[in-house]
Specification:
By secondary structure, the protein is mainly alpha-helical. It has four helices and three strands, in the order βααββαα. α1 crosses α2 (about 25-35). The two termini are about 25 Å apart.
């Protein structure tokens, strides 16, 4: 999944992430409560500010729950049992999808 987010930021608001993932901010708030892997900071107003690491973890949660159909409990268990392995696989899949998209655009340009 490719997110349309600036890569030079240290923190992302919940609104930016909701738009990038095409979900409601309430879902991201819910996932924040449910998944210990997410550790957003809160600013002076109490708004969640997500780091690039949180964004990666959100992508992984999104992948497991929305794309692979895991239940929340199943996703939590999966993350706890094989977090490193799952993250590595997910990063490989993401890179391959990015390469595929680039190759498709090159093919269409020919």
């Amino acid at each position: 999944m490719h997110l349309d987010l600036p890569t030079d930021k240290r923190y992302y608001s919940i609104g930016e992430l909701a738009k990038a993932f095409d979900v409601n901010a309430s879902l991201i708030r819910f996932w924040d409560k449910e998944f210990d892997i997410l550790q957003p900071k809160k600013n002076a107003k109490g708004n969640r500010m997500f780091t690039p690491e949180d964004v990666k973890n959100l992508q992984l949660i999104y992948h497991l729950v929305k794309e692979r159909g895991f239940t929340l409990e199943g996703a939590k268990t999966h993350l706890k049992e094989g977090q490193k392995k799952t993250l590595d696989k997910f990063e490989v899949i993401s890179k391959l999808e990015s390469i595929k998209a680039q190759l498709s655009s090159i093919k269409n340009a020919l």
